[in-house]
Amino acid sequence: LCKDCKRGFVANQALPKGKYSITQIADAVGQYFRGMSLNSIRNQIDQQYGVRPSDSAIYNWVTDYAKAIVDKTKAYRPSVGDIWLCDECMIDIGGKKHWVIDCIDESTRYLLSARISPTRNRKDIALMLREAKLIASKSPKRITTDGWVAYPDAVDLVFGSDTKHMKSTPFVDVDSTNIIERWQGSLKDRTKVMRGFKKPSTAKLVLNGWVTFYNFFRPHESLNNKTPAEKAGIQFPYKHWLDLVKSQLPRLQVVSDPKVDRIHVPIMKSHKRHAKKKIKHNKNREIGLKGVRG
Q1: Is 11 in a helix, a strand, or coil?
Q2: Which end of the chain is flanked by fewer CB atoms within 10 Å, N or C?
Q3: Below-50 pLDDT ranges, the chain
Q4: Are 4 and 180 in contact (CB under 8 A)?
């Protein structure tokens, strides 16, 4: 209890007006993006901390920090290779079929772009490729995709003759087998975190958060336990979700201005009148004493 403001405070390392500690929030968000169900997250948090956050609390944390990590990473530009892989998978949002279309760099495993769309035509794929080109600040020399009919026109539309398009059959082409195998596992993790969303806008936000988690927080064995961002030459100040949550804590500012030591206390009008009367009275008293002394 603060003696000055008469308010109670709990030393639980929570964010302002928050109930749960930053460690609990970071653990829940990290578990969610690793594909755990809400029930599993609650059980894990309960076993470790003795609290059970609600579904809405976990969803709010996920959406808030998905947006936060996207905002903190959008200015970075990776240094990627010349061979990119494109893929698409179907997900369910609000009972309707949608497609996640994405592009990954072969050498760094950096996810350059991922988009949610109700269709996967040439326009949809071209939008994804333009975003990948913008993030990489370059065109690849080769793009490998599956045999979907919309890819050739979309690749030609965005990159022209600068990029060669190659069709690949998963688990057959020797040069892409290992990457595709690992990527299929990542796709499964990604579709798990998309379940339960009824609005495409919310699903897009969480997908963007997952892409950023994949690029900046998730080490890869094939990259010597580096993240794709590290492999792509990016020095990101946060190493995990806890660092990101901590960055939202309010910071105390130490002011070294010497003027701060000079405290000016304003005097109310009534106090000013009283002060003037007292000064006048003292002056009259001094005059009277001088007359007596004289």
Answers
A1: coil
A2: C
A3: 1, 9, 171, 174, 177, 260, 262-265, 267-272, 289, 292
A4: no
Q: Any bridge partners for residue 113, and if so which?
A: 103
d(CA 60, CA 29): 10
95-102 long-range contacts (CB < 8 A, ≥24 apart) are 98/200, 98/203, 99/124, 100/187, 100/190, 100/191, 100/194, 100/207, 101/125, 101/128, 102/128, 102/211
Cβ-contact 81, 228 below 8 angstroms:
no
- In angstroms, the CA 81 to CA 107 distance is 6
Q: How far apart are CA 55 and CA 195, in angstroms?
A: 13
Compute the half-sphere exposure of residue 128: CA atoms within 13 Å on the CB side of its CA.
30
Q: How far is CA 285 from CA 61, 89, 271, 291, in A?
A: 72, 95, 21, 10
Planar angle of CA 33, 39, 42, nearest 5 degrees: 80
Residue listed under structure tokens 């990290």:
30
Residue 162 half-sphere exposure toward CB, CA atoms < 13 A:
9
Q: What is the pLDDT of residues 208-225, one digit of tens each?
A: 888 899 999 999 888 999
What's the CA gap between 273 and 265, in Å, rounded? Answer: 16
pTM assigned to the model: 0.75
Tokens of 265: 């206390």
Contact 154, 125 (CB under 8 A): yes
> What are the two backbone dihedrals, phi and then psi, of residue 103, each rounded to the nearest 5 degrees?
-140, 130
Give the integer Cα–Cα distance in Å for 45 and 51.
6
Separation between Cα atoms, residue 212 and residue 245, nearest integer Å: 15
